[in-house]
Amino acid sequence: MAAATGSRPRVGLFVTCLVDLIRPRIGFAAAKLLEDAGCLVEVPSQTCCGQPAFNSGDRASARAIAEQVIAAFEPYDYVVAPSGSCAGMIRVHYPELFAGDPDWTPRVEAFCRRVHELMSFLVDVIEVERVDVIFDGTVTYHDSCAGLRELGVKTQPRKLLTSVGNLSLAEMKDPDVCCGFGGTFCVKYADISNAIVEKKVVNVVATGAPTLLAGDLGCLMNMAGKLQRMGKTVAVRHVAEVLAGMAQEPAIGEPAKAKRP
After folding, report:
1. CB count, 10 Å around CB of 66?
2. In a domain, 258, yes or no
């Protein structure tokens, strides 16, 4: 991978709750990509970004969480998350939580300008052109809502994917349409969520690609679950796993391989 020029930027990796609890290897893949690009990566003690509280209308709890996040990550040159949803919450919505507070507003705005989604940071900020890995197969890519609409993440993952050896990208119909996850939306409106993800999965399967990629674990889990319930064998992975050359292990939702004694 092309290395960043000049001094090594110090990056605080915001791992996200889902990655930490469900699929830590995404965090390791993100760290590898950042380190290969010349960054000094650290993972400070961290909590949730506060999005569930924010989306549920509990602004007081969301602000309290935001204050913790800012305190933990403020020392870094950049804050990077392998999730457009969490990065979007911090960069776009934290200023709303502190609006009108003269003591916090300048600090929050300066902090949020340093927050980026992983693919956007690699391509737009430190100008990575390619990755030196191989992935034998065809993939299709889903544009997660928050990353696309709040942060403009669309061309960046595709640019890096086209540099992967032996990889072919088959675009699905309506790749930028929601998968139906939406955080608490899929719990509050389960029937609507299920109808949305069913349409998404039909489009995924129609590509013939044996692998589905995206940049948000929540979306990936939602689509992986529906694919399995429909009896489809599409492997579901975070885009960072492929770009970091870490796609050998079971895909999302697949059982772990038994270890030999």
Report:
1. 28
2. no
